[in-house]
Design brief:
With 297 residues, the chain is an alpha/beta fold. The protein is 38% helix and 21% strand. The strands form two sheets. Strands 1, 2, 3, 4, 5, 6, 7, 10 and 11 form a nine-stranded mixed β-sheet that branches. A two-stranded antiparallel ribbon has the order 8-9.
Length: 297
Amino acid sequence: MTAKIGVIIVSYNSGTDVIRCLESLLPDSEDLRIVVADNASPNGSAQMIKSWIAQRVAEVEVIETGRNGGYAFGVNAGLAKLSHDPEVQWFWILNPDMTVPSDSLKALRSYLGKPSHFSLLGGRVVYDDGSGRLQTDGGIVNRWTGVTHNVNLGKTLAVTPPKPENLDFIMGGNMVASREFLDRIGPMKEDYFLYYEEVDWAMRRPADLPLAICEDFVVHHAAGTSIGSATLDRGASEVAQFWKHRARMIFLWRFNRLALPIAAIWTVGKVLQLVLRGQKAGAKGALKGTWRGLKTG
């Protein structure tokens, strides 16, 4: 049996981005089984992607999930499909606005070709703006505020990557899960809708399946093309702030309920900071999201 890498790309109104991502993967895709999970995009993205695939005669499957159930919902649809194929030993979750250089794919294959036991594996994510600046080398999370931090944010690839044991999670937009991890832990939690799904998943990893980092596995991220997530040069949109802060509170409900009052106070400080920066819409989203997360949890 030849081991394969299953690739899951979740799309919501992301047809153009998905096609660009696929264009970076398909020239060297002999051991990839690619699935695009479209969460009922109202702009016709699913049909756009299908038409492109048909023209290229590409071996890519499009799953229409039927509703916009959130990021984890789409990922889980892809996991369910790919997990039935015994040849797929790894599940690579990739944002639609990512592109993958050929050398990075070779580095990933080289890493996976060596004996290793891991839960989730990541690489290095660089902003796709020509600056060479890192978006993340992995993440850490504060258990008392729920705030996440991207390691080496804004630095260049010249900086030394962190040791995997010093990380709490791998960025969900470029993350490889082992079959052993999926079989033992199960799929992502879907109640977050957006953000923190990967943090939750990583926090549930067993002690004998650590996180892993492949240094030469570098992907480029356009960042924020769907809902306006923050970049180094702009603040997050109201929608992005809402979902992020809602998810933050749900995460704390699950992993450290005693921290909820501290996290709520932190929100007040964050809202004031955003207002002073002139980001009133973002402040509104953060406040509403925190409240909704407290109620949801």
